[in-house]
């Protein structure tokens, strides 16, 4: 790209042609406040008018987030005219905003508050009628509160860019405008995937996960035996909530914090991931051998399962019948673990720490219980765990590294760890399938063909005794490409992994926020690199494990020998497998 000459505040700079003023200013060391712009041209409607600047050649002030730089342009950010305009823009937004900052779950991560401080917005400058407020807290995953919405449109665009579904949109016009699913329906009454990508980009508290911290408090106070498990992606991001650089693995400190929070057992969902691989790999090989429905598609992402049920019910038979890892582990805790420990399953309360808001919905599905007992009683996001730790006064960064509890389900393998990143489930399954088909371990152990953050990855894999074609997709817009092939009968694949969130669980809707304006110590391109950094943390832990294949986990072997019998046994199906709903409506009629 050609370089052009510009001036910012009278200083000369050379920048690439085609950049917006906002992008160019950031590269030159200036922060122009903005609320509707999330990253480059993503989620930017130029609607907030908070980034107004003066630029030569323009008739008036221009929105820096959409106005391109040109040769010889002179940009004034701090001129009296631009400074006043930005301050008034923010004051007008604040005049129609809820002022319950102390009670807001986004406190500390609120971009509106940050921008208000930047521009020197004055409290109560404008008074008048406020827009009607709508609160949707019917979903078990996400809460929508329009009193905190600033109509930036980020959530609307994010839903389209990540999934192509467009669940959220602008309703009504003018002063009455608000954001919601069509017809102001609840998330429960729309084909929302409940993935939380909209929550991740919301600059205020208008969209938040539905907190379940109080459920944990109640369980502990009631004397329940409370068991917690943590998903692999959590360790790759939790440290960000405590000021550590993005991509810092904090497994040991996380475990130490959970012990100090008073949980009776602290386990790793990687054990459940290893168990999932044993069941899923056996199911895949059984389908290949017995002429079952192919391609088989992974089923551990609840947002993806929601998408399939809403938009592609005709491919549900392609989905593996396996429950997701934390649901499997919850079922084992309330059966095998309870039996071995002499506990009444009714007295056990299971908590899952997940990077995902859709997991909150998943745990409540009617299929996720055995003999009237829920596999998992409560799901907290990574962000909620951080709140628990901070509330308890624990100095996270000073904690020693500790190990997960080792009894019954303390062992896990590198294969379980990589579930946290797109391609990880596929690679873990292939490691075990290779051993089953060839009778030996693959060297090298990695399947680099399915690694990487591309939206769609394809490969032909040699499993020793057979070759199969596989595909990996993350983000439903990418998954749609593969699903349309299945519908058309042209899919060349035997096995497909699909994750709802772009990049996989490392980018889940419950992970710490990536907000460059609130992360001054991170690189300027952090939004382009954070998924890679978190993925590297996942792969580094895989490499550190002595055992890296699920079938070599000694406690998994013991579980089958003493309790389940063999993969896909009758008891395994009763506890570890599920079914799907082919009759979910896209937009049920409002009653």
Tally of helical segments: 18
Radius of gyration equals 25 Å
Strand order of the biggest β-sheet: 2-1-5-3-4
Q: What's the helical proportion of residues?
A: 25-40%
Main sheet: strands, sense, barrel: 5 strands, mixed
Hey, roughly how much beta strand do the residues contain? 5-15%
The counted number of beta strands is 20
**Helix/strand/pairing category:** alpha/beta
Average pLDDT over all residues: 94
Low-confidence runs: none
Distance between the termini: 56 Å
- Gross morphology is globular
Descriptive notes:
The chain is of the alpha/beta class. Helix content is 34%, strand content 14%. It has helices at 21-27, 80-94, 111-119, 154-163, 197-201, 213-221, 251-260, 269-290, 302-311, 325-341, 358-363, 382-391, 414-417, 424-438, 476-488, 526-544, 554-564, 570-576, and strands at 3-8, 11-16, 52-55, 62-63, 74-76, 135-136, 142-145, 168-171, 178-181, 207-209, 225-230, 265-268, 296-297, 348-354, 369-370, 373-374, 378-381, 456-462, 467-474, 495-499. Helix 8 crosses helix 10.
